[in-house]
Amino acid sequence: MEKIVSNNFKTEEYFVNMGPQHPAAHGVLRLLLTIDGEIIKNVEPDLGYIHRSIEKMCERDSYQQIVHLTDRMDYLSSHINNEAVCLTVEKALEIEVPERVKVIRTIISELTRIASHCLWWGVMGMDVGALTTYFYGFRDREMINDIFEETCGARLTMNYNIPGGLMFDIHPNFVKRTKDFITHFKTKLPEYDRLLTGNIIFQKRTKGVGVLTKEDAISFGTSGPVARGSGFASDVRKRHPYSAYDRVEFKEALFTEGDSFARYQVRIMEMWEAMSIIEQLIDTIPEGDIKTPTKAVIKLPKGEYYQRVETARGELGVYINSSGTKNPYRLKFRSPGFSNLSVLDHITKGSKIGDLVATMASFDFVIPDIDR
Amino acid sequence: MDLTKDYKMNNSDLQNLIGSWFPNPEADKVSEIITNSQTEEGSEENTEVQEPINPSLLEFTEESSEFLNITVQPEQLHSLMSQLKNNDKTSFDYLYCLTGMDWGVELGVIYHLESIDLLHNIVVKVKSADRENPTLDSVYDIWRTAEFHEMEVFDFFGIKFNNHPNLKRLFLTPDWDGYPLRKDYVDDANMVVK
């Protein structure tokens, strides 16, 4: 019998499915990986597992109904998604919402941002092997959800915004509970740093991993913490202020390293800034109406309208092309996750599979936001 | 921030500059119309929609939109886009929205562009009258984000892009029949028509 002897250990490219059911994917995202040993050669996302064609549904729905669909895109930023559609409709109708509405919308948007980042912080720690963070993150997020439940009637899909204002006024406990939360969270956020940020294992897993340059961040159309971790000042709240962001002082979280740790630091800093924004507004909520009346059937004038907002994941754009009827002729959601996902292949090529998980965690994907 | 604002161009300046890249034999007629339709950046007042002077030339409108709209012929798309990106005065380096569109007769794409440093915005539209086999040039080599967005447009509208590295169905299954976001798409099982 002839024995085949090989002196060289030959490697071969393998093709591996990561997902659609993968514990580190946070949803039904399927990545087609071409790997050589542990080295990633190519990452190709396969999307559409929860594609519902929200854009097509919008073409048959009224503008009030569309607001409800947007909860189901990025469910962790549902209030901000609602606000995006409402602002576009208000821009088209040329109506000015009362000051009270602007301030309340901004406060709840920032609470939403903190809640979203709390959840992200928990699962980011979990993805790199620190299970405790998950419970800490969810503990603090729970308090915000309780505030939402009291005021909006829902914890996740809030639907608090309507075109022209708000569904109903804030709950009498809202101001007190929000202040209580800020007091509580100011003692807990430094705890996050002590637990995870300074942890040497965590730093080794994230520093220098998944580096995205500023030029690529712009060219790939990234936004949100992903862009700001690479030094691209993309914050819509600064560039194109909406609601009450023009009257508050806050620093845009900006880091230049472009690695997973920089994206982590951006979100931690954004939670501090969000608390500062809420503190500036919470004592001076103007009195007044909670909505500007609109007609029961909203018909937008013929034309094209575009509005951008900053969700917890980045820039959400709403493009409405109206032909003058009660439904939009075409409605496009420019979702932050979709553009951010396109850069994943570019920055993970040549790295290890384990680093891909850490990079994905720092991108904070919400799959319904990508699939729409 | 204040320094860069000095370089920010309003819509009519942009229109004059971009118009000058594609010389027009009937230049006098164009400049006359430009002076008539001057509006300030940011204002959303309606200006009348201009008639195309010559179908092969650029068409500028501000049809109830806050941005300057340019409609370009498919052949000119790529050269216009690379000039918009590379010219120092325009410097549109951020493609933040790429929308597929079915205008009923024509299919096309709407590009929303922004300059990060100069802070101005522009909208470029391109239309293809061919519904059977619409083909446009890819701008993926200018803005890398276009790669994914053009796949999405191909998936929902069936517009093919020349020079695209990997054009395939992105959200729907490869054997899906038809293009769902077209206005003439019919699906008895999945669509509820009111």
Description of the structure:
The complex is a heterodimer of chains A (372) and B (194). By secondary structure, chain A is an alpha+beta fold. Chain A has one domain: Cytochrome-c3 Hydrogenase, chain B (Orthogonal Bundle), CATH 1.10.645. In chain A, β7 and β8 form a beta hairpin. The mean pLDDT of chain A is 87. Chain B has 194 residues and is an alpha/beta fold. Helix content of chain B is 24%, strand content 20%. Chain B is built from 5 helices and 7 strands, in the order αααββαββββαβ. In chain B, a hairpin with a 6-residue loop joins β4 and β5. The longest helix of chain B is centred in the C-terminal third of the chain and has 12 residues. The interface between A and B is large, with 40 and 40 residues.
Q: What pattern of helices and strands is seen along the backbone of chain B?
A: HHHEEHEEEEHE
Largest interface: A-B, 40 and 40 residues
Average the pLDDT over all residues of chain B and give the rounded result. Answer: 74
Number of helices in the DSSP assignment of chain A = 15
Q: Total strand count of chain A, please? A: 8
CATH topology of chain A: Cytochrome-c3 Hydrogenase, chain B
Strand content of chain A: 5-15%
Order of helices and strands of chain A: EEEHHHHHEEHHHHHHEEEHHHH
Helix content of chain B: 10-25%
- How many whole angstroms does the radius of gyration of chain B measure? 18 Å
CATH superfamily assignment of chain A?
A: Cytochrome-c3 Hydrogenase, chain B
Task: Tell me the strand order in the biggest sheet of chain A.
Answer: 1-2-3
> Count of helices of chain B?
5
Query: Outline of chain A, from the CA principal axes?
Result: globular
Largest sheet of chain A: 3 strands, antiparallel
